[in-house]
Input
Amino acid sequence: MKLGELAKLTFSRIEQGEENLEITGAAGLNIAKDGEITFLANPKYTSQVNETKASAIFVGEKEKIDRKDIAILRTSDPYLAYARALRIFYPEPKHTPSIHPSSVIDKTAKIAPTAQIMANVFIGKNCEIGENVRIFPNVTIYDNVKIGDNTTIHSGVSIREGCQIGSNCIIQNNATIGSDGFGYARDEQKRWLKIPQVGIVVIEDDVEIGANTTIDRASVGETRIKRGVKIDNLVQIGHSCTVDEDSLICAQTGLAGSSYIGKRVTLAGQVGIAGHLKVGDDAIITAKSATSHDVEPGQMVSGIPAFDNKQWLRSVSVFKRLGDMFRKLRELEQKISKLEEFLKSAK
Amino acid sequence: MKLGELAKLTFSRIEQGEENLEITGAAGLNIAKDGEITFLANPKYTSQVNETKASAIFVGEKEKIDRKDIAILRTSDPYLAYARALRIFYPEPKHTPSIHPSSVIDKTAKIAPTAQIMANVFIGKNCEIGENVRIFPNVTIYDNVKIGDNTTIHSGVSIREGCQIGSNCIIQNNATIGSDGFGYARDEQKRWLKIPQVGIVVIEDDVEIGANTTIDRASVGETRIKRGVKIDNLVQIGHSCTVDEDSLICAQTGLAGSSYIGKRVTLAGQVGIAGHLKVGDDAIITAKSATSHDVEPGQMVSGIPAFDNKQWLRSVSVFKRLGDMFRKLRELEQKISKLEEFLKSAK
Amino acid sequence: MKLGELAKLTFSRIEQGEENLEITGAAGLNIAKDGEITFLANPKYTSQVNETKASAIFVGEKEKIDRKDIAILRTSDPYLAYARALRIFYPEPKHTPSIHPSSVIDKTAKIAPTAQIMANVFIGKNCEIGENVRIFPNVTIYDNVKIGDNTTIHSGVSIREGCQIGSNCIIQNNATIGSDGFGYARDEQKRWLKIPQVGIVVIEDDVEIGANTTIDRASVGETRIKRGVKIDNLVQIGHSCTVDEDSLICAQTGLAGSSYIGKRVTLAGQVGIAGHLKVGDDAIITAKSATSHDVEPGQMVSGIPAFDNKQWLRSVSVFKRLGDMFRKLRELEQKISKLEEFLKSAK
Output
């Protein structure tokens, strides 16, 4: 692809370099090869610009680039432009509509003619599989599941009875959608009595779900993952939670039951969210933190339990010196005793 | 079902409402519909009682309900009564004994005639599958596995060689039972030498195991999950652990090797338990905590490393103000220096 | 096996007992039976030596053993000797080269004649499967995957397109190798745009990967797990990470993207590693800790965020008393105020 066309498709502006320069791919600063385009989004990596083998680079509007031998594409968001370039160079592979003979599909299931169902897939009663859906091998789809158009289900995924998956979703390998929620009541003998989990999971459009992630069905009602949510690997979503649009949930985070995560929330890695609480729109919970209380919209919180991130940063910086602080406190205590003694005797 | 019969089956008492009232289902306060029964177990939700569309409600003995248009069922444990109602309205679906032709079952395996073996299941040599067992698609059962009566194995589960599963168990999707324990010895070249993991996992009756949870086999001997234990999703149980009866292990908790978890213990979400230790009966370890020491029976502990929960609550409340505390300490230090100076000069 | 031969094969020295003593197996102190050999590696368990039913024991050079009725084998590393004994008594089972008729193997795939491909396995286009490889049921191997000699892939594993697995590797059940990395750019509407993940995962020789662990493919380039690395269950390795030789990663640990873990590093259970950082050779990060900064070679760090382990131990010991410390600080403040008052009035 010519640099000029690439600039147009990525909404960027050629500042240096030929419109006709042939660009063959896109990659990060340290691995891009001759002929490829790279990007600089984080000033931390500015020094790598001098060493990159890339032939072109996306940079922000103000970044200064000293090299004359690299094409420069200006844009307000170099990372976004790079993402678009990658999507141009590596489009989704075309698939061949087909149903593998080793798959086991209930005769009441409706499979769109453009879908691809691969080897050893099981599809239960009354399922509906949309156009251009790809289902990789060894997937199990229980009864009454609906899957929207253009969705991809990777191998080893289980989708339980009655769950609904939207369009343009991707479910990575070995994820579980619709497993029973973790609900029990203690009986008179202090034994656990299982509470039936007969609700469902609804996954709206444009959602991605990571490998080996688990999303529990509601006991009654639904667990809902709304449009545009992206969920990483090994995440646990408890029963009856709602994750609202465009939120991002990083790996190994866990949500207990019935919590509401707002729009555009970021839950970083290994975060914990207790049950029955609300995280407001645009809130950020930093990695390894946990909250047992509501989080206000737009707030960034940290710690276990989590509180304001700036205050937490001060607390953890003091925490390191807690040993010294304790010693100091004892010294002051002794000094004060001495002063008190002295004044007493002086009276 | 008539309200009168429901009251009898849930060991509750009609305080308000007609015996003949028809109840059609059960659901939480905020989603229950006309004709359904709901419950109030947590005073936090008392205000929702005024808005619920339910026709009946389980409440505790002392809770005051102002509404006249809702049937009231008194009981000492409304949550337990609700659980029983749900179990009445949503009984386990009946299954059809059958063996799907796409399953691959070794000829030495013994399958009870009432079992249901679904598509693409693999069952190895000398396995024994009990009465009414349901095995969903794409399950793999290695050689010499025993599965007790009425147990359900969901799709994607792997049960490794020689493991034993009790009766009335449920294993959720993509769980792994009997994977190799994580055991290595460092050799003279500082490389890791694998220690054979030739023990087994024994899961007793009435156990439930969550989706994508992993339970490692012992190196020699066994890992044992005792009767009535409930384990949530994405939990890791290390080799040679024992989890004693009726304990509850929430999502993403991890147990290192050879630890003993007592009876009726609660390990909340994302807890960590180090190796070779003992958590006493009825202990509670709160979410995100980790212990590297034994925990006494009945103790509630928190933190990393965990200690008494009440003391921890005080510590975390001070932790938030650690920045201020540090500044205060420096101020006091200066004040004392001044006092000392003054007294010196006064002498 | 005779004790004399066992001593030779485990590089240990008979101090007490007959060369001709028949040893039938190996097990831990508390479960070893008559005729078996056990070991004492941790002084904590010395008292169990008096009670063990084992007929022989590996002990360190300096440990004193009072019993006369047990054969004693001296060695500098009793745990390593025990590991070697176990490997002698429990060798890897022999397998029968075979391809199960229910497996679905693309005709362009090359399968070594000594490989064993079990039921319901799927193998895609242009794959290469080495000598003596064992692939258990319900495994999915996407196109263009290479698997080296003597590697074992347990049931339910997914290996995505283009990934490479070395020789002598073991991949435990339901692990996912090569799932898409978690990469998105925020577009002008604050929606997430997926960044294509077209790199691969390379797993070198002698690597073991735990059950339900996930290793993401790079966006461009590769994620690499080097020779001899051992990874436990439910671990998350983000895209473009490198884990260097002989490192050990315990259960439920997570690595965000593009980090480098050095040689012989230990990441204990539930550790978190932020993105784009470096953990030096031989570093140790203790359980439940997380680092957002580089860790120096050989350092042991703890806490969230992690710092020097010894300093951390002091801080957490003070943390328990933080409530008392806060009260003490207020008392001192009042005492100082009184002293200041007194001196003011005395002037």
Remarks:
- Chain C touches chain A through 72 residues (CB under 8 Å).
